[in-house]
Amino acid sequence: MASFRIRQYQDQDFEAVRALFARGVLEYAPACFWYVLRAGRVRLALLAAFVAARAATGSWVLGLGAFALALVLVWVLVRLLCNSYVRDALGTDLSDVPGTYLRSPDCRFWVVEEAGTVAAMVAAVPAGRGELELKRMSVSREHRGRGLARMLCREVLAFARARGYGTVVLSTSVVQVVAQRLYEGQGFRKVGALYPSLLGTLLNFQMLYYRCDLGDGNK
Q1: Which alpha helices (H) appear in 102-171, and where do they start and end?
Q2: How far apart are alpha carbons 5 and 114 in whole angstroms?
Q3: Which of 61, 76, 155, 156 is the most buried (most CB within 10 A)?
Q4: E strand spans, 48-130
Q5: Is the CB of residue 124 less than 8 Å from the CB of residue 157?
Q6: Segment 70-114, tens digit of pLDDT
């Protein structure tokens, strides 16, 4: 761990941070696809496509073709969901990191650097009602398994305590199982789940919400 350095975001990190976030989200597209395929409503739709084509044409081949096209459509929708999430982040807070995360003493944006390369990142921003939100956690594929996410999570929790917050909240997707285990290991507990959009509802894809109560916050 000695080769890594955690520090505050700097202007020269802009492109690296945006690329790290986008790659991190899009890497989960295959996992999202397989998760969506396990949903009963999606399986029923795929079966309906096969049965309808088979009945209309009398051909097993065309029925299977319709099934394959329906699978492709599901994949396209999953990619659309992931791309929409990335586009929204890059067009809002990650388009102006200093303006969003560095102008208030209750906001922070950290990166982990190794040999001049941004290896991981996380942000914190007030969420109201004495809560601080952990946001934009991402670790590059090449640096995973080395404890960077745990280190950043602890940095956010320590910052929240130092600033007098009583609770840290966050959201993560249902397919990010490793992240869920990390957060739970740091004292977070799941408190809810919501569909992020109409497309998320259609695909039965949820975001999970977690909170960690720190005890002595006074904000």
Answers
A1: 148-162
A2: 7
A3: 156
A4: 108-114, 117-128
A5: no
A6: 999 999 999 999 999 999 999 999 999 999 999 999 999 999 998
Q: Domain count for the chain, please give it.
A: 1
Q: How confident is the model over 36-74, as pLDDT tens digits? A: 999 888 889 889 988 998 899 888 988 899 999 999 999
Spatial distance between the Cα atoms of 106 and 71, rounded to a whole number of angstroms:
45
Nearest-angstrom CA–CA distance, 131 and 125? 9
What CATH number does the domain containing 15 carry?
A: 3.40.630.30
- Which pTM value belongs to this model? 0.88
Which residues, including other chains, have CB under 8 Å from residue 87's CB and lie 6 or more apart?
none
Which residues, other chains included, contact 23 with Cβ-Cβ below 8 Å and sequence gap of 6+? 140, 141
Q: Which domain holds residue 100?
A: 1-219
Q: Cβ of 150: how many Cβ atoms within 10 Å?
A: 14
Question: What dihedral angle (degrees, nearest 10) is formed by the CA atoms of 191, 185, 124, 112?
Answer: -150
Terminal Cα distance for the chain, rounded: 33
Beta bridge partners of 111: 7, 121
Q: Which residues contact 217 (CB under 8 A, 6 or more apart)?
A: 130, 160, 161, 164, 165, 166, 167
Long-range contacts of 84-91 (CB under 8 A, 24+ apart): 84/197, 84/199, 85/25, 85/196, 86/21, 86/22, 86/25, 86/26, 89/21, 89/25, 89/136, 90/18, 90/21, 90/22
